[in-house]
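Person: At home tonight, work slowly through the protein below, taking as long as you need, and write a paragraph about the fold.
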Amino acid sequence: MEPNQGIAPEWVKEFVGSAHGDLNRVQQLLEQEPGLLNAAWDWGGGDWETALGAAAHMGRRDIALYLLERGARLDLFAAAMLGKLAIVEAMIADRPELKQALGPHGIPLLAHAVAGGEEASAVAALLQ
């Protein structure tokens, strides 16, 4: 990529797609183009997703933590999957309707917590 030329859309699509389950490819792509970290892809109809969002609904803690360690912006759905109870509680206390929030692909917040397994069980209990 040439500097200041933007990121090729096919890179964004591959990066977000890979974050659903391929940590090695995520690492390779991010090394080649650090600007991908918070890039979002529209799968159609306004279904925007970041790599962190992809990792979150797939329960890929390893990918999520890798991205967060590099500066990805934590969102409610990733916080739920990672079991960040205090963050989820605070956001829901501020905006109770978020308990029913839908993430990428229309996946409910509760499903993100369930995808987080035992480490997110307290968040799942809160959302049920």
Q: What stands out?
A: The chain has eight helices and two strands.
